[in-house]
Design brief:
With 877 residues, the chain is an alpha+beta fold. It has four domains: 2-76; 130-318, no CATH class; 335-513 and 747-876, no CATH class; 532-728, no CATH class. It contains 25 helices and 21 strands.
């Protein structure tokens, strides 16, 4: 028993060490054990033996590893070109994988920056089985009082803040209105001051308090701690700062749903106000689930509660229900498929890189078969040979991994800086310790992938044949089968990536070809917020008149600029984000349930709007100076409204109401073309356009659209001067060419298609180069055979055909496998495609043609070289 235990412990030593010393060690141990006369001496002997093994075994293993590593570097240095090609290929594949992991880690894997984020959820109101929508204030109040699934429910809406006074330039910043417990729900405490109180979340002067971001506190107040409690002007009204948020706090809710926020106001709704009604669905509701309550259970409870509200208020709900979604899924769910598709692409690229390196190592294996066979004949065991060969693969892989860190770092920085803004937290991507750990894991895995193929062939080589056949071998069929399999795998991965990239490129091309219904070229956009007492004091008509005068003055001066051909303003810029939806009621067609009426996107515009954006007039007239205050209320609708709600009749002259059925009726005076307001790939909905002077209240926040001579960016400074000359207290923000706004709306799709195209192109080049290298090696190894064929009368055409067919066979197999895999997997891209079917025949045929042409081109040069072999010279060799 003790001898068996000793032999087991000795196996901890390297095999090479055991071969020389194991027998002597066993004999010495047995002799010392016989001399031991007591259990104490035997226990001491075993303790000393185990301690000696614990000290010796690691040192011996490290010594052998060091020798293997030095030998691996000498072997790599002996073939610098092949080594450089392998290192660069691996570095490219590994670097792309590490960069993509860093992006996925920052966007998807990092937890939301809130306390216990898994319990955070967003609550929406669904209607007739449709998608979730925001919630009305009174509905939120009832759900807050009745729901037991949530620890806290809060409501939020978008806002803006125009900062004035303090001797600084007016500045407009994004803001949010939130109910009292918003920050408590998120689990965030202010770095300075406090959160809102119940009294401040009520109508009245007490709600004139704000919480500001750390960045605004530093920029506007010089990071002065005494700013907490200070009163400053927002749009001419005094507000007191009650809290400053922590420096690293990132409100993803604000960033993803409201274009960010630097100021937070208390919601402070008056339940009796017109905008607080149940059908005024503009509030987003968030909540923290009670301990132990699942999202599904909360969804069932709120669905039941809204059903009971519909029974209590049947005229204000229509087949209503609730939809509860985990906050992380709501914020990150839309981009998850994009990043996972891209990571699948870089994994495919890495597999192609590993296949090419395995092919290079197969070439070296064929050159080293005699060396391995001789060492085996001299008594080196297969285990020892395997250890050395795997060490060489590992050293090569680690070198490639180190080389890949540089492009990985550059790619991560590029993704963080130039990635689409629609992907949240992408700017936080970094090559940190987690990314480096993943890089090491991928490197080790890849070394096993490409190292085992040549290792298996070398260890199976016949010793006698290898020694006796040195210098006169031709390529074995087994070696070529392995090379052909690697070529087929590379072609399959390239085909899969080409199909995916082709589908996305076709989708993006089709999307960009879609007419948005406007002409954004040569248009400059900028946002102006009319802040001041004259826009909120006095009668409603006086406020409207003041806002109209302000924008008329600005636009009149803009039109007078040489080079400016048109100018107008709109409340919601098409494709610029944000939606203003209103119920659309046709006079004379009453509905039993007003909440079931269709919803239209509402645009408040100034005269000249359609001419500025070149939206075509289909019927009737556009809005102009005739449509002022005190005139007959009018409205212009889009073609979808005309065709869907007035089928077979002329909508001109019909009267409609926006909002509740009792709202002011407006006469339809024109029909214009459809505008892709929500996105180029989104269906066009109902759209209505109302004159600014005839809207129910003063529209003080509008986007100016200026059509001018190119380049439009040069008109930014003159427009700022015009606004400053009209009213120096009005800030100007978001000054951008409209073409950039339109392009940004397809940013994620273009980003995905572009990256996948790069991956597919790189994989295609690698696959073709791999095929070329494999055929080149094949021709070199079969020189004797080819020379004999030529000497026996084989024609050059037959030799070329022989080599080309040898290459086309694995390419054909790889194409079949790759296209089949693509057909089975491209359904995952469906959500990213526009007007293109996943099994698009043109894309599949194009991918097959590109790969086939590349494979044929890669086969021609080796085939030509084979046909030029001199049989006399070859036979003499």
């Amino acid at each position: 028993m003790q001898d068996w235990l000793f032999r087991t412990l000795v196996r901890l030593l390297p095999e090479e060490f055991r071969a020389g010393y194991a027998r002597d060690m066993a004999a010495t141990f047995r002799a010392e054990r016989r001399q031991a006369r007591s259990w104490g001496r035997i226990l001491w002997l075993w303790s000393a033996t185990i301690a000696d093994l614990a000290r010796t075994a690691p040192a011996e293993h490290l010594d052998i590893l060091a020798r293997d590593v030095r030998f691996a570097f000498r072997t790599m240095a002996a073939r610098p070109l092949a080594t450089a090609a392998a290192v660069l290929t691996l570095g490219l594949g590994l670097g792309a994988n590490v960069a993509m992991f860093a992006a996925i880690d920052a966007v998807l894997l990092a937890p939301l920056p809130y306390r216990d984020p898994a319990r955070l959820a967003i609550v929406s109101q669904s209607q007739a089985g449709g998608e979730g929508s925001p919630i009305g204030y009174l509905t939120f109040v009832d759900l807050s009082a009745r729901a037991r699934s949530f620890e806290t429910l809060v409501a939020a809406s978008q806002s803006t803040a125009t900062l004035t006074g303090s001797g600084l330039e007016p500045e407009r910043v994004n803001a949010m209105r939130v109910s009292r417990a918003y920050f408590d729900m998120l689990g965030v405490a202010p770095a300075l001051g406090r959160t809102f109180t119940d009294n401040e979340d009520q109508p009245g002067p007490a709600r004139r308090v704000v919480i500001v971001s750390d960045e605004l506190w530093r920029r506007r107040f010089g990071a002065d701690p005494s700013a907490v409690g200070r009163v400053f002007d927002i749009a001419g009204l005094p507000y007191r700062i009650v809290g400053v948020l922590p420096p690293r706090f990132e409100d993803l809710v604000a960033a993803r749903m409201y274009d960010g926020a630097e100021v937070w106001f208390p919601l402070g709704y008056d339940p009796a106000a017109s905008f607080a009604c149940r059908t005024c669905q503009h509030l987003r509701v968030f909540g923290r689930l009670a301990p132990g309550v699942s999202v599904e259970a909360a969804d069932r409870e709120l669905d039941t509660l809204i059903g009971s509200l519909e029974r209590e208020y049947p005229s204000e709900y229509h087949q209503a229900g609730a939809e509860v979604v985990r906050l992380s899924d709501a914020l990150l769910g839309p981009v998850r498929p994009v990043l996972l598709v891209l990571w699948a692409g870089v994994i495919g690229l890495l597999l192609v890189a590993c296949g090419n390196v395995a092919n290079l190592l197969l070439l070296r294996a064929s050159e080293r078969s005699q060396e391995v066979a001789v060492r085996a004949a001299l008594g080196v065991t297969r285990g020892r040979l395997a250890r050395q060969l795997l060490t060489e693969s590992l050293v090569l892989s680690l070198t490639g991994g180190l080389a890949g860190l540089v492009p990985a770092w550059a790619a991560v920085r590029l993704l963080a800086v130039a990635g689409p803004a629609q992907i949240p937290r992408l700017a936080d991507a970094a090559l940190d310790a987690r990314a480096v750990a993943v890089a090491l894991a991928i490197t080790l895995a890849s070394s096993m992938v490409f190292g085992l193929v040549p290792l298996r062939l070398l260890l199976r080589s016949d010793v006698r044949n290898a020694v006796e056949g040195a210098g006169r071998r031709t390529a074995s069929s087994a070696t070529w089968r392995v090379r052909g399999a690697l070529v087929a795998v590379n072609v399959a991965m390239a085909a899969l990536l080409l199909v995916g990239a082709g589908l996305l490129v076709r989708s993006v091309s089709g999307l960009l070809a879609v007419s948005p219904g406007i002409d954004p070229s040569g248009v400059l956009t900028m946002q102006v917020w009319a802040a001041g007492e004259r826009f909120r004091e006095g009668e409603n008509s006086e406020q409207i008149a003041a806002a109209v005068r302000l924008y008329d003055d600005i636009l009149g001066r803009a039109r007078a600029l040489p080079g400016v051909t048109a100018a107008a303003a709109v409340t919601t810029l098409p494709l610029g984000g944000g939606v203003d939806g209103y119920g659309f009621h046709i006079q004379g067609r009453p509905s039993a349930n007003p909440d079931a009426a269709p919803t239209a996107d509402r645009f408040v515009v100034t005269p000249g709007y359609f001419e500025t954006l070149r939206t075509p007039l289909v019927r009737g007239r556009v809005l102009d100076e005739r449509d002022g205050q005190g005139r007959e209320p009018v409205v212009v609708v889009n073609q979808t409204v005309a065709e869907s709600l007035f089928p077979g009749e002329d909508p001109i002259g019909h009267r409609v109401s926006l909002g509740p059925p009792t709202a002011v009726p407006r006469t339809i005076v024109g029909v214009v073309g459809d505008v892709r307001h929500r996105g180029l790939g989104m269906p066009v909905g109902y759209q209505v356009y109302v004159p600014q002077a005839q809207w129910a209240w003063a529209e003080t926040f509008m986007t100016l659209v200026i059509r001018a001579e190119e380049p439009v960016a040069v008109w930014a400074a003159p427009m700022r001067e015009i606004v400053r000359a009209v009213d120096p207290s009005q800030p100007v923000t978001a000054v951008r060419p409209y073409a950039e706004v339109v392009a940004e709306s397809t940013g994620t799709r273009r980003f995905t298609a572009g990256l996948l195209t790069v991956f597919a192109g790189t994989a295609l080049v690698m696959a073709i180069v791999g095929l070329y290298g494999a055929l080149g090696v094949l021709v070199g190894q079969r020189r004797r055979e080819i020379g004999v064929r030529i000497a026996l009368g084989a024609r050059a055409r037959a030799i070329r055909r022989l080599v080309i067919v040898q290459g086309i066979v694995p390419v054909t197999a790889g194409l079949a496998a790759g296209l089949t895999a693509a057909a089975l997997s491209v359904g995952a891209l469906r959500s990213m495609l526009y007007n293109v079917e996943p099994l698009d025949p043109a894309t599949f045929v194009t991918a097959m043609a590109v790969l086939g042409a590349g494979a044929l081109a890669a086969s021609l040069l080796p085939a030509w070289r084979a046909s030029k072999i001199d049989p006399a010279t070859t036979l003499r060799e």
